[in-house]
Design goal:
The protein is mainly alpha-helical. Helices cover about 75% and strands about 0% of the residues. It has four helices and no strands.
């Protein structure tokens, strides 16, 4: 590619991939639970299927976008913060 820095893609790839795989999975679980909590007026059979099938696109989306972070540390910090926000909203939703 013209103008690309050599080795720019390979920098911190393991840290970024592990952050996307682990924290992306927990983020997908949290988003699925949040959807299930917010769509409580929907029948359980439909809501359960939608919550289950939304896991894969969320997880794959996070895993594919994790390489846009500048470093593995940034990926871990931002995805940890996103997990914290989603699970705090989920806990607040379940308490009300």
């Amino acid at each position: 590619m013209i103008g690309a820095k050599p080795g720019a893609v390979a920098r911190d790839w393991f840290a970024k991939t592990s952050a996307g795989a682990l924290l992306g999975f927990t983020l997908a679980i949290g988003c699925s639970g949040l959807f299930s909590c917010l769509a409580s007026d929907m029948p359980l059979s439909i809501r359960g299927q939608l919550a289950m099938w939304m896991m894969a696109p969320v997880w794959i989306g996070v895993l594919s976008c994790v390489y846009f972070f500048r470093s593995g540390k940034h990926a871990w910090v931002w995805l940890s913060a996103a997990n914290l926000v989603v699970f705090c909203i989920l806990a607040a939703c379940r308490l009300t």
